[in-house]
Amino acid sequence: MKRRSECALITGASTGLGREFARLAAADGYDLILVSRDAQRLEAVASELQRDTSVDVMTNPCDLSVAGAAPALYSQVKSRGRTVDILINNAGFGKLGYFSQHDADDIASMIQTNVTVLTLLTRLFLDDMLARKHGKILNVASLAAYTPGPLMAVYHATKSYVLALTEAVAEEVRGSGVSATVLVPGITRTEFQARAGIPPASVERGAMSAAAVARAGYHAMLDGKTVCVAGMGNRVLGFLAHHAPHSISLRVAHTMQRKLLR
Fold it and tell me: Class for domain 7-258, per CATH?
């Protein structure tokens, strides 16, 4: 049961899964702190939610790929006097291509956004939640977490980290009144593919809508589940990737992603 004036902080909230998470939380009456580097689109989401609901919506435009972004965001939230009851670490991105050809700055930005910021925000807000014995954390991983990914090597590695970290934290806080959930989506219709350099035509095959994936993860978080693989088809793929011989899953991933190269 939601308490009065509870607040959800959502990163990557201007589009895709983040926007859908914001809609779900607002519909449940949570005040919102929305974070994204795209200030204009972030304000558009905030305006929509303020028009359609009675919740308080604060926006915090910032680039999470910049070093020091997590503690700065945490300090800003604290200075506003807000308590975060739900933390949704959704921001993240990937890049398709050979590791040897990736720009070093892009790699650093990906690790900063997908790993460092997620880890530090989880750590900082978890401390407050444990003190109150109340709170929920949702971290967004990917089916990529279940196998190394040639041609998206860094992205797969970062999502494996997110899965492992969240499962470990969930076990540590069990029984504390705080829960940690990791959402494991498959191919989802968002802007992720365009930013990653994945051809649009490949997205429609077996893709889930952002709304459906967000609903699965959001409700799993509210229920205190540790791992949520969104969609039956993705649960089958995740099981196969996780349990197949390592050499086979590695080659399958390489073959599939080689087809995406333009």
Answer: alpha beta
